[in-house]
Amino acid sequence: MATVHTTARGTEPYDKVYCLGYQVHHEDWSPYPRINRLRQTFLDRGYDVDVERLRLVTESYQQHEHLPEKLKVAYAFENVLLHCGIEIYDDDLIVGEIASPVKSAPIYPEFSVNWILDEVQNHPFEEREHDQFYIRNEKEKQEILDLCSWWKGRTLDDYINVRLDDDQLKGSEAGKKIYQTNLYHYAGTGHLAVDYARLMRLGFDGLLERAKQKLAALDMHDPEFCTKREFYQAVIIMHSAVKKYIERYAVLAEEMAAKEPNAKRKAELEQIAVNCHAVAGGTPKTFWQALQLFNFATMLICVESNGHSISYGRMDQWLYPYYEADKSISKDFALELLEVEYVKLNNPTKLKDRGSMALRNGRGFGGESLTIGGVKRDGTDATNDLTMLMLEASAHTRMMNPWVCVRMHEGTPEELRVKAVECIRAGYGHPKLFNDGPAIKGMMRKGMTLEEARDYCVVGCVEISLPGREYGWHDAAYVNTAKMMEMVLNGGRCIDCGPHCPRWSQCGALGKHLGPDTGSLDRYASFEEVKQSVDTQFEYWTNQMCSSLCVIENAHRALKPLPYVSALFEDCMESGHDLTEGGAKYNGIGPQASGMATCADSLAAIKQLVFDEKRCTGAELLEAVKHNWKGYEKLYALVNSSKVHHYGNDDDYADELFKFMFETYCKHIAGRKTPRGGIFSPGVYSVNANVAMGLNTNASVDGRKAGEAISDNMGPVHTDFGSHDINGPTAIVNSLTKVDHSLATNGTLMNLRFPQEAVAGIEGRDNLASFIEEYIHKGAMHVQFNIMSAATMRAAQKKPEDYKDMLVRVAGYSAYFVELGKPLQKDLIQRTELHF
């Protein structure tokens, strides 16, 4: 491959070595003292529960209870923006939060309250093992209970519960946890990126004017006249409130400037006021103002709804015109502003139910991906000066957010590849890398043109989406394929499903079977019968899951429309349809599969030991897992040994079975119709849900014992006995690229871990860069790295006070290692350490 160079430059050499892995008792990383102060202030501040949004939203809903839903949400949004407390913090250059104090979690009662009432009274947030939140005092605790009690019977959760039937519930989080749809069952959908370039061109005045024009032009003979009228009315109410909200900050900055004795800070506050006045309605004229408009617009998405993964699109592309045109700003100050915003993007935090927290540890709002690099719509390389500055800002701040995503392709410039590798070697979990080839192909599978597909960004962990055009309901459900495999092994029942099972009565709908009886391991006459059973079980359970997701989606349309963020989608404004009504151009639903390698290695063990070599019978293997391998220690050791074929070793025997599992899941998801007129998109990733799923999964034929994590994402199996991949990183890449990643149009995820010494020095850096280049060339969609040894993580477990800001790449996201639960820490430590 020819070396490509770019004229894009940051403030530092592209091959600057930041450090190698996490440094205990490190010095400040940013060259800007302000950034180091802001970062430390963030780390020192605790996480609180904020009652103000709950109070203001409830007050508005009580006053407007008989209005249409779009107007209810509009007036509630207005009430919050006009009456919430606002604050400008020390060292702030960019202002605006999610209508709550920094690191305080608002409450969104519109979605669900039963879990809040239960946890406040019976499982206090502050007593959680991890991810604790603190209610400030007993008065606020009682207010939360009183206000949430009013919402009982009025929430999205209540609406959904009476519409799911027994067949849908038995496999869900309410039953056997074969799939879990609780993310959108209890909260907002999010997982989107708006058209920031359009917002910058129009400003809030332009959006308001467009809504007023469309409202005035409505045809009363249009059968959707009332629906569209309510949408435009809601947009006008909400965006008018936005202007007033931003002006509140301008006035506050002026008041603070008038009292500020420090001349430098006084000038900063005066400029903040100017910036707020400018973007309250108008369009930004400077780089600083563009960042300020971005911050307000993005934070307000999180005021409207608590759907996380509100991502920032291709920020180096839409922000670049303001950087290029601003002749008054130095490159150094532009970088400092980016770093201020990077730290600020960590402030939003989200209160989640215990079930969700078991799936995913971490107290951030979640999923704030920022995409840089890649190709332009015409196919040429998109790297620019901001691309490099945004990587520098990441290396200087080293915080959970934003989740920097670097798009790579065959023509990615050498400077960008090396700079990305230096950030990765620094060991703080950023950036994650995406391959334009399969990602663009996947976008086109969703019906997009080539030019649209090239403009993809990442939302959430690994989900590929089209900013301002796609409302994809990404991350809609977690699917435990290992539990589906139990149905294959055991005649449509879980391994532990018998009269002793507390949910035995739930299985009665199918004659004491949880799913259809498609055979069992003690009855199959051939391996082809096993594969057919897999196909049938997967079809049955994906039918149940997808129908459940359609119920949940219709509930959002009925009770929680999104007029504010819908106005940031051009197609919604043109059609008069909210995002929840199919107003976006592309309208998908994206559930993702977990445990693929667990299933593949299970099939490999069955095929090899039962049918090919006849070293044991199917009945013996079934009894072994029913007894959690107790009494079957020799068979347990064999299944976990290199004598049995395992995925991840460039072994066609096992890799073909992984391919079979991958394609089986994708074919049963892809192309199904959604209520919004789009199609379902399969994803193959677990984030960190494989750990929680494993806790609720019985022993499996791949050599897992009950309670152990199932395999993560696209990675190979690692059990308590040991890792199943033993042939090194090249073999893993060869295995995972035997599937067509573009079939997973909702994304794939691959975690890799190298200890620091494996990538040390110029040789180590070049080895990692060459490995990434080959990874891209072979066609995998995504990869992310932990540059950290198991010894470092064990040291952090022993002395967490010395590792408080040590970030690890959990899966699609990074988190502070010492804040993670013990099962997740264990899973991270057990992942294979790779060496070149």
From TrEMBL:
Pfam families given in the database record: Gly_radical, PFL-like
Span of domain Glycine radical: 716-836
Location of Glycine radical modifications: 812
Coiled-coil intervals: none
Superkingdom: Bacteria
GO cellular component, one term: cytosol
Lineage of origin: Bacteria, Bacillati, Bacillota, Clostridia, Eubacteriales
Gene Ontology molecular function terms on file: lyase activity; transferase activity
PANTHER family membership: DEHYDRATASE YBIW-RELATED (PTHR43641:SF2), FORMATE ACETYLTRANSFERASE 3-RELATED (PTHR43641)
Keyword annotations from UniProtKB, A to Z: Lyase, Organic radical, Transferase
Name used for this protein in its record: Formate C-acetyltransferase/glycerol dehydratase family glycyl radical enzyme
Domain (PFL) ranges: 33-705
